[in-house]
């Protein structure tokens, strides 16, 4: 899952990003609304964690732009105000969920994951395919009932492949979904991660390489 964190309190923004990355998410961070608009015009995000009171461009305007563009991106709006009227207003302009500050990080994680599941084709909380069971919330993977220990990026790549439900996923798409914008697009990190993931999942291999196209399960 790829997430954009938009928060002008830099310490909070960086802390949220670090926590989300530990949950095997690819995270980009910006600190104002203008930078947020620039990022959503370039990258595809599953979820935007959006502070409402932003400098340069207000969070409400960023949210309206996402809706206007017809993007599949889901918006979790943050605000220091806990007033019901503010929450209602945020939802009315297009936010998918609302979380007042201060918040428990575990709740933020749960809400981001819940929004990430709201794809065009609804998927269950626990993904199962080819004898593999992946639970994004618990960060657990099992193959034929045996737990498989994965590093965050390996987990992220497997989650993207599982969510594709048998469709081929290109290396570029994996790079887009499982790594942030600071990753060199010409690196072989995708190929190396897939190789390691195959080894950890064991025999027989479940990740198929489709020459010239990408990978699928």
From TrEMBL:
Alphabetical list of SMART domains matching this protein: REC, Trans_reg_C
Entry's Gene Ontology BP terms: regulation of DNA-templated transcription
Organism domain of life: Bacteria
Modified residues (4-aspartylphosphate): 51
Response regulatory domain segment(s): 2-116
Domain OmpR/PhoB-type stretches: 124-217
A GO cellular-component term linked to this record: protein-DNA complex
Alphabetical list of InterPro entries matching this protein: CheY-like_superfamily, OmpR/PhoB-type_DNA-bd, Sig_transdc_resp-reg_receiver, WalR-like, WH-like_DNA-bd_sf
Keyword Transcription: yes
DNA-binding span(s): 124-217
CDD domains noted in UniProt: REC_OmpR_CusR-like, trans_reg_C
GO molecular function: phosphorelay response regulator activity; transcription cis-regulatory region binding
Keywords in alphabetical order: DNA-binding, Phosphoprotein, Transcription, Transcription regulation, Two-component regulatory system
Pfam family, one: Trans_reg_C
Chain's role: Member of the two-component regulatory system CutS/CutR, involved in the regulation of copper metabolism. CutR suppresses a defective melC1 gene, encoding a putative copper-transfer gene, probably by altering copper metabolism.
Protein name, entry field: Transcriptional regulatory protein CutR
